Known about the structure:
Layout: E1 13-15, E2 28-29, H1 32-39, E3 48-50, E4 58-60, E5 65-81, E6 93-108, H2 114-120, H3 145-151, H4 156-165, E7 168-171, E8 174-177, H5 180-197, E9 204-206, H6 207-218, H7 222-231, E10 251-253, H8 256-269, E11 275-276, H9 277-288, E12 304-307, E13 320-323, H10 333-343, H11 349-352, H12 365-375, E14 376-381, E15 384-389
Parallel strand pairs: 1-6, 2-6
Antiparallel strand pairs: 3-4, 4-5, 5-6, 7-8, 9-10, 11-13, 12-13, 14-15
Helix pairs in contact: 5-6, 5-8, 6-7, 8-9
Amino acid sequence: MPIATSLPSRNVTLRYPAELLEENYQLLELPADILKQIEGKSDAFPLTIKGRPSDDAVLCTPTSTYLIRTVGISNSLLVCREPKLPNVNGNDELEIRDISHEILELVPQPPNLERIRTLLRPTAWKGIGHGLEPTLGKRKRGWSRVQMESVIQASDAELAAGIKERNVVEIDNRLVLLPSLILGLLLQIMFNLLAIHTKAGAARAPSRPIIRALEEDHEVPPEISAAVIRLFSTNTAGAIEVDSSGDLDVEWIADTKRMVQEIGRGLLETLKGAKRLDLFEGEWREAVSDWEGLVDINMLQGNYLLNAPPPSSTAHSSPLISYFPAHTLPLAPAIRFADLFLTRTPWKPEDMAPFLKGLYREGDTKERDKLVSKFVRVVKDKQGSLWYPRRSG
C-alpha cells in the first residue's frame, strides 16, 4: 500500500511518467468508527477481507463485519507519487500513476454465521454410543478453527460467539457440531449425574466422576464429555482437558439455565406437527429434573410458533406449539419476509422479531426498523399493532 505524501504549499505540476506504467489502485474509504479504532491503536490493527470466490467480499475488524461495495464518484481522483528522478528546474512535481472513477465503500452488515452449521453438519457427532470419527469421505478430519475463519464472513469476536451459540466444540484441533437433539439427550444424563455428585443442591461437582460415568455407562468419549462441560460452565472450566490417564479433578460449575434451554430445543426437534403447550412444558420440566423451575418457553424464542387451539376446544385449552427454527429461514431479507408471511398473516411484532435475527447486526435497532418499514405494513387496531406484508407495485 503506497504511503500518502503531503502536498507542497506552493504550486505543483502534475505530469504523466515518462515511461508507461501499468499501475492500478483501489481506493478504500474507511468509516469513522474504524478510523477511530485505527488511530487509537499503537500497534497494528487487523483488517481482513474474507469469503469464498463466489461470495460478495467483506472486510472484518476484530469485532465487526462490513460489506465492500463499489461506488462511482463524479469527481475523478488522481493517484500521484513523487517522480523517481529529481526535477532539474527545481519545481514541485508529482507523477500521475492512476486515475480513479470509483471508490470502495464499507457498509456494516451482520455476519454470515449459519454457514458454520452447514459446513459442520456432515461431520457432526452422531450421539451417545458413537465415537469421534466422522463418516465423511473427502473431509475425514472435518474443519479446523483456522479453516473455518477463512470461509466464514465474520469477525473473530462474532465467529467465537456464533460457534458457542451453535454448540460447536473443538476437539483434537477440529470443530465438532453437537446437534440439539443429540446434545439434549446427553445433557439430561449430565443433569442426573450432577444431582448425584453435587453438594447441598448447588449446581457444582467434580468433573472427573461425571466424565468417567459417561464413558463407562453410556459410551460417551471423554473428549466429548469434557468439551460439553467446558461449553456449559460458568467458571474457568476451559482448563478442563483429558489426559492420557483420564485423571481429572476440576470442579464444574454448571450453567444450568443454558442446559435447560438446550434440552428444550432438543425436545422441540422431536415434535411432529403441533402439540399442546402445557404438555410440551410438562415433558420439558420432567426432562430437567431438579431444575424444572428454570423452564420458561421464552428461552426458546426463534425456534417455535404458537397458535390458538382449535375452536372445538374448551375456553381454557392450551395454545399449540410447533417447531419452527429461525436458522432454516433464508438469509435474503425479501425472501425471509415472504416466507414468514406465507407461514402466518398477520404477525404480532413481538412474535416476528425473533425470526429476523441474522438480517441485521445485533443491537442495531435502526437497521432493523429500516427492514421492517421496507417489507412490513403496520395496521393498528384494538389489540395493538399487527404486521402485514407490504404490497409492491
